[in-house]
């Protein structure tokens, strides 16, 4: 169960899912308030892949692209 990050409603839906070799990116939407966000999932115990995804998402270049 994934709780809404915005309103804390206990029900969300996956509206899109894409996978790579290391991760699964899911677009989720709250069934109550409609807020949408992404989750990035890695296999249990695959800490190195999780760190790589975090570094990719936190990179200044990615932040700059999102603002353009």
Rg from Cα: 14 Å
Enumerate the spans where pLDDT stays under 50 for 5 or more consecutive residues: 62-68
Walk across the major sheet and give the strand order. Answer: 1-2-3
Major beta-sheet overview: 3 strands, antiparallel
Any overview of this molecule?
It contains 2 helices and 3 strands, in the order E-E-E-H-H. The chain is an alpha+beta fold and 68 residues long. A 3-stranded antiparallel beta sheet has the order 1-2-3. The longest helix has 12 residues, at 47-58. The protein starts with 11 loop residues before the first strand and ends with a helix.
Topology:
Elements: E1 12-19, E2 23-30, E3 36-42, H1 47-58, H2 60-67
Keywords:
single chain, 68 residues, alpha+beta, three-stranded antiparallel beta sheet, 2 helices, disordered C terminus
Short account of what is shown:
This protein has 68 residues and is α+β, with helices and mostly antiparallel strands. The protein is built from two helices and three strands; from the N terminus they run βββαα.
């Amino acid at each position: 169960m994934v709780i809404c990050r915005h309103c804390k409603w206990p029900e969300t839906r996956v509206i899109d899912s894409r996978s790579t070799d290391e991760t699964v990116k899911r677009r989720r939407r709250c069934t109550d308030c409609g807020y949408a966000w992404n989750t990035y999932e890695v296999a249990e115990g695959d800490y190195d892949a999780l760190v790589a995804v975090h570094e990719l998402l936190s990179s200044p270049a990615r932040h700059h692209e999102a603002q353009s």
